[in-house]
Amino acid sequence: MGEFELIRHYFAAAACARAGGDVVLGIGDDCALLAVPAGEQLVISTDTLVAGVHFPDPCDPCLLGQRALAVSTSDLAAMGATPIGFTLALSLPLAEPGWLEAFARGLDIMAAACDMRLIGGDTTRGPLSMTLTVFGRVPAGQALLRSGARVGDLLCVGGTVGDAAGALPLVLGEREGASAEASALLDRYWSPQPQLALGQALRGKATAALDISDGLLADCGHIAAASSVRLAIEQARVPLSDALVRWAGRERALQCGLAGGDDYVLAFALPREELPGLLADGWPIRVIGRIEAGEGVRLLDADGKDVPIDRQGYNHFNA
Amino acid sequence: MGEFELIRHYFAAAACARAGGDVVLGIGDDCALLAVPAGEQLVISTDTLVAGVHFPDPCDPCLLGQRALAVSTSDLAAMGATPIGFTLALSLPLAEPGWLEAFARGLDIMAAACDMRLIGGDTTRGPLSMTLTVFGRVPAGQALLRSGARVGDLLCVGGTVGDAAGALPLVLGEREGASAEASALLDRYWSPQPQLALGQALRGKATAALDISDGLLADCGHIAAASSVRLAIEQARVPLSDALVRWAGRERALQCGLAGGDDYVLAFALPREELPGLLADGWPIRVIGRIEAGEGVRLLDADGKDVPIDRQGYNHFNA
């Protein structure tokens, strides 16, 4: 089977017309065509996952497909965007039908969950890696940026953090576990759920937002830098799942929550007056601190005293 | 230097505001934002280049930067699009400042030539490879597709073919040469010039178009399949550069022109009545055949007899 048939055959489900009228032309020509509705802007993000760096090799290709699309789509959530579609650039050492079929199935599961469509791609022979570029749309001027946090805003997250980092010893095969906790953590790692609906609900309300991919401390540092403010995090309010605390113990769980990446829940700055309405609507928002004048990130203990920060988020070229 | 500073530092030139008002938000947030003018559609293409597969490793990183962007931008030319910008997902075994500086310089040279801007990216540790996703815009309904060729149309190309394939022995170090011919061929390989202006001039005129990346025969096969027609190529009219003929001899030059890829000139179907006007405007169009009823591609000798086709375009998983 040739390169062209390969893509068409295995990725047919993910490429089917799902996202409605925005995709004018999908896979099969030199380019894809998108129509962006009047008054909306196009939102774009690109992420690469490399075997042995971002995921273990070998691993379950279906789970890998889910995770690859979720990681990129989470950036759309962080902007408050409505997803449209994605392109997939896939490098493979060889075209193994079973692997491709399972990977495409995983991709399609996440595409269906996010209401997205595969609109184009490239398949090349090479070391296993994949670059997904995702597309969404947002009303002009309403995208959630990192740069708008204001002193006095609340610092919030969209759910528990640390589960994906807690799962890493399982993912890497350094530890074994078949418990309900292990299974819950693995699920967070392999199949994160981009908080698209929450992101859209935060449009016009949150003053700054991102998705936690590098770790809570590191990502809060990004908001602080972009907004020229300081983010104060109350350690005791960092939400940790019961599964993580049972699995790793409270101290290690907190470490995972602060420094571990790959959670893909939203972190955002919210004016106080916006909180009651969002909570009343049932959004799983947790207040973990506040925005102050200054720079960087501080961590506070239960007495309001500064906790030394000695853990940095993962950095690919400094790690 | 961290991952974020790395991108910002070395790619600052390519990320500067060059493309005008379409880029609302560039590098530095979770996503980039594009405004697509009313009445226009967004055009998207993605391509991966892997070290050792699509280019030799080591190679000159400045030339590699030029080529990487040209290869992708050529797909925009094939759609008749006006370029806006691109994202770069770069995997590197290590962050070597000299390499990055030169690669970024090459990228910027081509970005300036194509009036494009780097709008986002991802840098990861991994085997050397890069995925570029390029964005352009085209008036709604005017994109040049592969699927509209009609029986009776002329088959045309936008310039000479085969130079890049002729350069391959030089690129791979299998042959040495410092002649003017060798230098001209190497230049075609490393720094192809996307035919953006020609593509835009063909809007509303050409009935089908693509850029020659897999080789003339293979790519004409793509038009034939998408348009449900047959493409007849007159062998004697396939334009070959003097440099290629002098370097490789006429027979090998013709092989390169028919089966070699990487030329990135446009091939298109054109109604006869459109030709005089385009030639009068000075476009470097060469008629090489015609569109017939049927399927596939045929090659004709000087007597109009069929020449057996035994060479296929390069196919990554069939090669």
UniProtKB/TrEMBL annotation, chains A, B:
GO molecular function: thiamine-phosphate kinase activity
Reactions it catalyzes: thiamine phosphate + ATP = thiamine diphosphate + ADP
Classification via Pfam families: AIRS
Gene3D superfamilies: PurM-like C-terminal domain, PurM-like, N-terminal domain
Protein residues bound to ATP: 121-122, 146, 213
Binding site for Mg(2+) 5: 214
UniProt: substrate binding residues: 54, 262, 314
InterPro entries per the UniProt record, alphabetical: PurM-like_C_sf, PurM-like_N, PurM-like_N_sf, ThiL-like
Range of residues in the leader sequence: none
Positions annotated to bind Mg(2+) 2: 47, 75
Domain PurM-like N-terminal as annotated: residue spans: 28-138
Pathway annotation: Cofactor biosynthesis; thiamine diphosphate biosynthesis; thiamine diphosphate from thiamine phosphate: step 1/1
Alphabetical keyword list: ATP-binding, Kinase, Magnesium, Metal-binding, Nucleotide-binding, Thiamine biosynthesis, Transferase
Domain of life: Bacteria
Binding residue positions for Mg(2+) 1: 46-47, 122
Enzyme class: transferase
Residues where Mg(2+) 4 binds: 30, 45, 75
Residues reported in the UniProt entry to bind Mg(2+) 3: 30, 75, 211
EC number: 2.7.4.16
Miscellaneous field: Reaction mechanism of ThiL seems to utilize a direct, inline transfer of the gamma-phosphate of ATP to TMP rather than a phosphorylated enzyme intermediate.
NCBIfam families hit by this protein: thiL
UniProt record similarity statement: Belongs to the thiamine-monophosphate kinase family.
Protein's name according to its UniProt entry: Thiamine-monophosphate kinase
